[in-house]
């Protein structure tokens, strides 16, 4: 298991290093989204290949074991005692680490289910307006505007009347982009790898990329100055719902900076090609 975690860490580190150094300021947001998701999944799957090889190798060793046993059969009482004591300590450490892992897994699983329950409660208690591809849910509880799957949640307790058109366009971009599926995948990976710091870096990067995508849609019909003022005006409420895409997400400064970022040219595609030799190397 330790070998697997180390190999996952190696994969995730190399892919994220490429993103951080070369791709995070590239305005090809859709490509960045799929790059990050692909890097996460590849980092989990590629190390499994080495375990397949190990299993085959162990099977071959097991078949040859009787021959080796005849040659090396020379028990020593003291050596066996040391080995047994070492094995006992290793067993205790393994059981302790497994217990800590299961506690963390249970905590993050409960948090995930609680987030889903909160969203379902808001949906059940809100008034719904159905459209062709999405549903707007008006709730009486205070929360930031957010979207989940094909539902857009708007609180009647927040003063959003003058900004509601841009907010709805932003959240609708999340709905049409199926960004909630990314979030669900991220949460499931986070539950299993809750102890791994790189998971949180990938989560942050993918969430930011979602916001850049949705912001770009709104800016097609709204000026950057007006839209930036909307973000700043409502960003201090501090109200969030787990698992949701909030209109007033954190990292407001980065979102505003990306609004004024110069569009990347076609030469930026060459930066993505650098991931290919890394991928081939990891497979080898």
How many E-type strands?
5
So what's the overall shape? flat
How much helix is in the residues? 55-70%
Beta percentage is 5-15%
Arithmetic mean pLDDT? 82
The radius of gyration is 25 Å
Give the count of helical stretches. 10
* Neighbour order of strands in the largest sheet: 1-2-4-3-5
Largest sheet descriptor: 5 strands, mixed
Helix/strand/pairing category: alpha+beta
Order of helices and strands: HHHEEEEHHHHEHHH
Amino-to-carboxy terminus distance: 20 Å
Short description:
This protein is α+β, with helices and mostly antiparallel strands and 284 residues long. It is built from ten helices and five strands. Strands 1-2-4-3-5 form a five-stranded mixed β-sheet, sandwiched between helices.
Fold and architecture overview:
The chain is built from ten helices and five strands, in the order αααββββααααβααα. It has 284 residues and is an alpha+beta fold. Strands 1-2-4-3-5 form a five-stranded mixed beta sheet, sandwiched between helices. The chain is flat, with a radius of gyration of 25 Å.
